[in-house]
Task: inverse folding
């Protein structure tokens, strides 16, 4: 009962368009909203398995490269910045929002192949994954440490100046 109620609630929330800075583009528009099969992913709990699937002629590696190129700050996370589905993702978003920088994001829970493509691209096994000006920085623990030492402020400042 609780599981079906949660599923209905999630589908209702997912149908509402978000006013977020979530990445979108013509190369990623053909998406089937809710897939009928759930892939088996041994390191993902069933509550967090992907619910959508990308169907595109562009490779997932190209999508990741495009995301990182087009967004000075890009985060691959569980959930979206407005509604993180993981404490580490929530922490990373909270820290990055302290700097009022535009934040590109993708919800890796929506697509297992995208999740695996990001892992392969960065050679990093966990999420969230944060890229600043095309460079992989790390996860929430690294961002928090950089914030506490002032290094993140300097990196974002330097990268903002490069963009202008």
Result:
């Amino acid at each position: 009962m609780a599981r079906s109620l949660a599923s209905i609630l999630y589908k209702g929330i997912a149908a509402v368009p978000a006013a977020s800075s979530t990445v979108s583009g013509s190369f990623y528009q053909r998406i089937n909203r809710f897939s009928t099969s759930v892939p088996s992913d041994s390191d993902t709990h069933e509550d967090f398995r992907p619910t959508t699937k990308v169907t595109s002629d562009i490779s997932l590696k190209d999508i990741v490269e495009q995301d990182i190129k087009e967004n000075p700050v890009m985060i691959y996370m569980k959930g979206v910045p407005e509604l993180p589905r993981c404490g580490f993702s929530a922490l990373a978003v909270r820290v990055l929002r302290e700097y009022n920088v535009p934040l590109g994001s993708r919800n890796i829970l929506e697509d297992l192949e995208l999740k695996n493509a990001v892992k392969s691209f960065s050679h990093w096994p966990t999420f969230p994954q944060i890229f600043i000006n095309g460079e992989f920085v790390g996860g929430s623990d690294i961002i928090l440490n950089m914030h506490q030492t002032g290094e993140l402020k300097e990196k974002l400042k330097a990268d903002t100046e490069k963009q202008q």
